[in-house]
């Protein structure tokens, strides 16, 4: 629910799903997460007050979140890992393929990653994960994939997955980011997946099993190489960068925000003795 300019990060994620054609959204939440449900619900008292004032602009903004999609909610009783959270969706999803979008991982709206992943699922079947290339010293913070080429530059077949490997043990520099399109076969696998790293049920471990299963049983895992813009709002520094970048690209804010930001940086540098005479 951390705001990115004037919307919580989770709303950008839901908007991404809707833009990709997914109108039925299930949120896996936990204790003290009621604010998420309230945000995507109607606020009738506030709407009536804004309507009475004739404030149509803010009224439309308030209604936007409630009108995005059909929203459902399931509580994860205890934090037992991403794999367990996904398994909590089984009754709602049934036997249909589905997408998983992590709430602190934002993809720029101009980069149609989820569109492409759904397209790859339709072409190859199985499950599809989003991959990004990182420096070797960063792989230990993520799930990492062993990949095999296909006939398409941005699509690979995944032969193995390792959750947060040591850099010297990583099968590649391609990490899994917070977008998945899963075959419903993943539910049966998750049911039998024991707790892994950190004592949690890892979705990575279940996908690793699926990678070795035949396609007729829902097996096979593919990766889409993503080279676009991603924002990690779960990291303090990246969150601040995201807010600044989004504000700098907003046509209603940029004309005033960018000059202020420039002056702020110059004043900050001057106070630190940076940028004085003789500096290039």
UniProtKB/TrEMBL annotation:
It comes from the Bacteria. Its EC number is 2.7.7.9. Keywords: Nucleotidyltransferase, Transferase. Residues 1-240 form the Nucleotidyl transferase domain. It catalyses: alpha-D-glucose 1-phosphate + UTP + H(+) = UDP-alpha-D-glucose + diphosphate. One of its GO terms (molecular function) is nucleotidyltransferase activity. Belongs to the UDPGP type 2 family. PANTHER family: UTP--GLUCOSE-1-PHOSPHATE URIDYLYLTRANSFERASE. This is UTP--glucose-1-phosphate uridylyltransferase. It comes from Actinomadura napierensis.
């Amino acid at each position: 629910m951390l705001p990115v300019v004037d919307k919580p990060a989770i709303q950008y994620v839901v908007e991404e799903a809707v833009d990709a054609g997914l109108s039925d959204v299930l949120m896996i939440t936990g204790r003290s997460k009621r604010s998420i449900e309230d945000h995507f619900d109607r606020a009738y008292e506030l709407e009536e007050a804004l309507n009475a004032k004739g404030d149509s602009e803010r009224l439309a903004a308030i209604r936007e979140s409630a009108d995005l999609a059909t929203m459902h909610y399931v509580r994860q009783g205890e934090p037992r890992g991403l794999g367990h959270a996904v398994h909590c969706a089984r009754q709602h999803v049934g036997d249909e393929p589905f997408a998983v979008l992590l709430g602190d991982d934002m993809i720029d709206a101009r980069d149609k990653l989820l569109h492409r992943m759904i397209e790859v699922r339709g072409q190859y079947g199985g499950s599809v994960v989003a991959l990004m290339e990182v420096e070797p010293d960063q792989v230990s913070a993520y799930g990492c994939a062993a990949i095999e080429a296909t006939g398409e530059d941005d699509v690979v077949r995944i032969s193995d997955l390792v959750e947060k490997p040591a850099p010297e043990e990583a099968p590649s520099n391609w990490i899994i980011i917070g977008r998945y399109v899963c075959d419903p076969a993943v539910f049966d696998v998750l049911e039998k997946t024991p707790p892994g790293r950190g004592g949690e049920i890892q979705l990575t471990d279940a996908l690793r099993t699926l990678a070795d299963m035949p396609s007729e049983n829902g097996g096979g895992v593919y990766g889409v190489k993503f080279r676009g813009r991603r924002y990690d709002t779960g990291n303090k520094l990246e969150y601040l960068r995201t807010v600044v970048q989004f504000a700098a690209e907003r046509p209603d804010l940029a004309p005033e925000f960018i000059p202020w930001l420039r002056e702020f940086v110059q004043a900050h540098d001057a106070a630190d003795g940076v940028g004085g005479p003789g500096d290039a």
